[in-house]
Amino acid sequence: MKRRKSGNKQYFTRMMGSKKKVHAFVRVKPTDDFAHEMIKYGDDKKSIDIHLKKDTRRGVVNNQQTDWSFRLDGVLHDASQDLVYETVAKDVVSQALDGYNGTIMCYGQTGAGKTYTMTGTTENYKHRGILPRALQQVFRLIQERPTHAITVRVSYLEIYNESLFDLLSTLPYVGASVTPMTIVENPEGIFIKGLSVHLTSQEEDAFSLLFEGETNRIIAAHTLNKNSSRSHCIFTIYLEAHSRTLSDEKYVTSKINLVDLAGSERLGKSGSEGRVLKEATYINKSLSFLEQAIIALGDQKRDHIPFRQCKLTHALKDSLGGNCNMVLVTNIYGEAAQLEETLSSLRFASRMKLVTTEPAINEKHNTERMVKNLEKELALLKRELALHNSLANRPLVTYDPMDEVQIAEINSQVRRYLEGTLEEIDIINLRQIQEVFNQFRVVLSQQEQEVESALRRKYTLIDKNDFATISAVQKAGLVDADGHLVGEADGQSFAFGIIPFSAKPGKKTKTKKTFKELSSSLRKEGLLSPVSTKVFDVVSTSKTQLVSSAKEGDVKDTLSRERETSSIEPSVSGSLKEESRPIRPSTPPPRPLAFEDFKNERGSEINRIFKENKSILNERKKRASETTQRINAIKREIDMTKESLNFQKSLREKQGEYENKGLMIIDEEEFLLILKLKDLKKQYRSEYQDLRDLRAEIQYCQRLVDQCRQRLLMEFDIWYNESFIIPEDVQAALRLGSSIRPGMVPGPRIVSLGEDDQDKFSQLQQTVLPEAPNSIAFINAKVKTEQKQNYMKTMMGLQHAPRK
């Protein structure tokens, strides 16, 4: 959009889509005290009229407005959760898999049903809200698109008192962030730094993350709502779709923001006090800023949109009037006592309808696939070029990279050219010219190395920039006052005992010290090091000073002895570290943390066996469930085939039977039904036998899992008591081999892993599945969440329990 200025050109090209208005719906909370005289709906269920009686206390002249009419996209009164989702969210989620971003927001007064509309209740599968239904639709659409590889990631953000919190940070593999979360803008949109994003490959995993975040939300009670949400929550589903059939490097990404806003409230009606009053102040303030942003977006003449006034509007910057499909669900009361708040919510919905969005597909490019496509195109162009060369009678030219034999031949040509034995090098193609220049560089580098090695065999090189070494050399009397070595003529190189004939005789110098004395003096001052003898430029002798190396072996021996001495100290310190042992803590660690450490260390083998048996058990149960479904499907098909066969028989009896030599004559259709029924019965018997075998295996695996669980708990209890509870003197007695044996000291309590979620699921399966066959993932995730909560409560009780 033009009023959302950005310096990134690519951002504007993505936004060039067809403009559309934000869809706004109203959902009325069911009540027994509905104000029929004040609230009326249009015949098309897309308008709502509000009528207020005039206040007679204002006198005869009373200009009070009494009638309001609001035109929306739909009014949902006494609507079920299924109808709400079909009307509001189904199209948004469906288009998200095509690359369009989507935002669904619930707004309204506190207690009007926003959280019920967005999340629903976990106690009843039929009463689930928009969010779990959206997850189900996403995974169902993924199954219907086998030609695409689609990945799903989710995140759960909470904005509480203008602070950002990750509702999924309580997961064991996430942990709390040290730095506070911040909102960052980039050309692709808004990014929450520090917010964890979780990959989900199954519907059940997504539900588990949803229920985990719901347990961490902040709620409070006041007059209008016993379970009032005290924060704004944004559940985001990130989608990324790659084509499995096309080799195109393009792929699409999208995200669905499901926003559950905290409810606005009048402090006089809610009666909030203390912390709840502070929360209500922050909520009303952020909702006021949200309404200001919506008003600015609806005004086409406005250039500046106040998104940064609060964290809520800043986090929803790319969702409010951006390149996404946006839907607003306004929840209102139908009672006369809440009519003022209802009017305020309907005004917000009408202002939201003025906002325009530009939905566009979010396309990106896969660099790896792009490289592969370019390689294919390059190979094709090479073949076409070779074809053109052959048609034009040109000599054979290879455009492939040169191999080692060709490179060696070019290197030989370059050497012969430098030696003068080769007059010129024939030019074949551009790649050969580049390799010729490269071999010139290689030959030059080799010659430099040969010169350096020759100098090293005769001289020891000292860097002129090493002022500390030069100062020590001057003190030793080997360098004159001008900074040149004694005997050096006109800045040329110097060697002990050799003076150029062009050098003029001068004054006598001091008695020269030998190189061994010089090195010993340098070592005393701590100036001799491997860096001091580093060669910075071998070819340019004007930048280095050459010192005779007649006794260089003494220096090397001394340096090697120093290195050996310095290498002894780390080994000694390392041995001391190996001998040290971890100190036993004064207070025992929490049992949950100790249990995790036990499973990773001492009990890793038992835990591995337990997990393997559990995975085998789950796999057998899954196969049994699939086999049961196949048996039921075959049974239904057998019943249908029998009905069709009976119908054919009755039809044959009505039309008259035909016999040939005492045999009954039937038509082809009835004969095919008889064969089909025979095959179905055979399949039914085979599948039923497989099911019986699987049930026997499940019973055996279940017994193994129970034994492993008991063994794991028993071993952990023994390890915990012996590591943290049993005194040191008793431990010494254990090591000395007295009558006390490991496991004889009982623990105060036994950690319980809780009832197996598969067991609960098996119990619920018989009662729930006949009504809702798609509820398996939902119920399974609910069971796991309840199990985790019970486990945490048990561990908290064990920590606070008095010790004997």
TrEMBL record:
<keyword id="KW-0547">Nucleotide-binding</keyword>
<dbReference type="GO" id="GO:0008017">
    <property type="term" value="F:microtubule binding"/>
</dbReference>
<dbReference type="GO" id="GO:0005874">
    <property type="term" value="C:microtubule"/>
</dbReference>
<keyword id="KW-0505">Motor protein</keyword>
<keyword id="KW-0493">Microtubule</keyword>
<keyword id="KW-0067">ATP-binding</keyword>
<keyword id="KW-0597">Phosphoprotein</keyword>
<dbReference type="InterPro" id="IPR027417">
    <property type="entry name" value="P-loop_NTPase"/>
</dbReference>
<feature type="binding site">
    <location>
        <begin position="108"/>
        <end position="115"/>
    </location>
    <ligand>
        <name>ATP</name>
    </ligand>
</feature>
<feature type="coiled-coil region">
    <location>
        <begin position="364"/>
        <end position="391"/>
    </location>
</feature>
<dbReference type="GO" id="GO:0005524">
    <property type="term" value="F:ATP binding"/>
</dbReference>
<feature type="domain" description="Kinesin motor">
    <location>
        <begin position="21"/>
        <end position="355"/>
    </location>
</feature>
<keyword id="KW-0969">Cilium</keyword>
<dbReference type="InterPro" id="IPR027640">
    <property type="entry name" value="Kinesin-like_fam"/>
</dbReference>
<dbReference type="InterPro" id="IPR001752">
    <property type="entry name" value="Kinesin_motor_dom"/>
</dbReference>
<keyword id="KW-0282">Flagellum</keyword>
<dbReference type="GO" id="GO:0003777">
    <property type="term" value="F:microtubule motor activity"/>
</dbReference>
<keyword id="KW-0175">Coiled coil</keyword>
<comment type="similarity">
    <text>Belongs to the TRAFAC class myosin-kinesin ATPase superfamily. Kinesin family.</text>
</comment>
<comment type="function">
    <text>Essential for normal male fertility and for progressive motility of spermatozoa.</text>
</comment>
<dbReference type="GO" id="GO:0007018">
    <property type="term" value="P:microtubule-based movement"/>
</dbReference>
<keyword id="KW-0963">Cytoplasm</keyword>
<dbReference type="InterPro" id="IPR036961">
    <property type="entry name" value="Kinesin_motor_dom_sf"/>
</dbReference>
<keyword id="KW-0966">Cell projection</keyword>
<feature type="compositionally biased region" description="Basic and acidic residues">
    <location>
        <begin position="551"/>
        <end position="566"/>
    </location>
</feature>
<feature type="region of interest" description="Disordered">
    <location>
        <begin position="547"/>
        <end position="598"/>
    </location>
</feature>
<dbReference type="Pfam" id="PF23735">
    <property type="entry name" value="KIF9"/>
</dbReference>
<feature type="coiled-coil region">
    <location>
        <begin position="674"/>
        <end position="711"/>
    </location>
</feature>
<keyword id="KW-0206">Cytoskeleton</keyword>
<dbReference type="InterPro" id="IPR019821">
    <property type="entry name" value="Kinesin_motor_CS"/>
</dbReference>
<protein>
    <recommendedName>
        <fullName>Kinesin-like protein</fullName>
    </recommendedName>
</protein>
<dbReference type="Pfam" id="PF00225">
    <property type="entry name" value="Kinesin"/>
</dbReference>
<comment type="subunit">
    <text>Interacts with HYDIN.</text>
</comment>
<dbReference type="InterPro" id="IPR056524">
    <property type="entry name" value="KIF6/9_C"/>
</dbReference>
